[in-house]
């Protein structure tokens, strides 16, 4: 329902409201157009997500404009983000690196754990406050 409320027009039929985003085609589609264009054996393997979960646009490498930044490098230089060419052939070819998606997943997990700890702390604090005020 919230995808319809976004009001993004379907790329195939602008009279319709998009509810899906195909990450391979990079297009917004209503349910009907998504089903019609992605029923074949090959296109049915495309990843379609609700438009509300559409990935943010990727940042392009400042040195190789055709390549997206996908890696983080462990080095002391200011620019720690790099594309595939920087990693394999450029200034960071001999440095340790990791995929940004992996790093982001690790950070999300640490934030979840910190939030859980914080909620537990607040719960303990509320219980202590109740005991003190009685």
What does this structure look like?
This is B box-type domain-containing protein. InterPro entries: Znf_B-box, Znf_C2H2_type. One of its GO terms (molecular function) is zinc ion binding. Keywords: Metal-binding, Zinc, Zinc-finger. Residues 10-51 form the B box-type domain. The protein is of the alpha+beta class. It has two domains: 2-53, 30s Ribosomal Protein S18 (Irregular); 71-133, no CATH class. Helices cover 37% and strands 13% of the residues. The protein contains four helices and six strands, in the order H-E-E-H-E-E-E-H-E-H. Strands 2-1-3 form a three-stranded antiparallel β-sheet. It has a three-stranded antiparallel β-sheet with strand order 5-4-6. It is flat. The N and C termini lie far apart (47 Å). The model has no long low-confidence stretch (mean pLDDT 84).
